[in-house]
Amino acid sequence: MSTLLEAQNLHSGYGEMEILHGVSVALDEGEMVAIIGPNGAGKSTLIKTIFGLLRPTKGRVTFRGADITGRHPRDLVINGLAYVPQSNNTFPSLTVLENLEMGAITRRSSPIPIPWSRVADPKVRSRLLTDTQIRKRAVGTIELFPNLRPKLRERAGALSGGEQQMVALAKSMMLDPDILLIDEPSAGLAPKLVDNVFSKIVEINGSGTAVMMVEQNAKKALAIAHRGYVLETGRNRFEGTGQELLHNTDVAKLYLGG
Ligand SMILES: Nc1ncnc2c1ncn2[C@@H]1O[C@H](COP(=O)(O)OP(=O)(O)O)[C@@H](O)[C@H]1O
Ligand SMILES: [Mg+2]
Predict the structure, then answer these.
(1) Ligand 1 pocket check: which of 10, 11, 19, 230 to mutate, most ligand atoms within 8 Å of Cβ?
(2) Are the CB atoms for 7 and 35 separated by under 8 Å?
(3) Ligand 1 atom 17, closest CA
(4) What's the pLDDT tens digit per position in 240-257?
């Protein structure tokens, strides 16, 4: 299988404070990878560094072999990366439909010239969408999330936590990404809703989108992931297939609650 995304020896953090001390992870074409580890291990920091929200002080990130280290998220999104943050991942005062449309805003072709040089790139230009195309994509995306169909005109902020997480996923799928980076999709959800969200992620992955997912719910995440990485205090601690990690006695004792 070919490597789609690779982070090598990442050092990153906030200001003077280094949080990642040389973390390496990889994601293959079509793969689902889970990043687990205790609170504060640096999982969110890793995802934010990969997505260009934080610039690493050392190490590099490659996407399809091209160096994307420290590239602005705006440039990554247009090239096929999408990111679902752990919180504040919908626009609560907008309707579900408006949220979906906003999901593709970074691919909207502007009637006025955009002062960024990126639109000069033919590959970028070929991925821009008109408003009609965005609306069409929203209708298509809703097919993947039938539970949201009756709620299209409701404000996202009025939905349940599980439904809002579905809106966040649907919104990111508006970009038709090659890679979806998801931070803690199950945070704050009741167990039954966790299962719904996880099966939706499996479905998204099954349709060809590679997924890198950070999760506190380590058992469930490893059960659905092809491979996993355990981070601890900003370093790689264990890695293996989801099943290997689930059945590793050290991993189980330390990170899976026995
Ligand atoms: N914006 C921030 N500014 C300063 N420190 C931060 C910030 N975000 C996270 N941290 C610190 O970085 C460390 C790792 O956090 P994080 O990557 O969120 O861990 P995890 O996602 O594994 O729980 C923690 O000690 C946290 O307090
Ligand atoms: Mg986190």
Answers:
(1) 19
(2) no
(3) 42
(4) 999 999 999 999 988 887
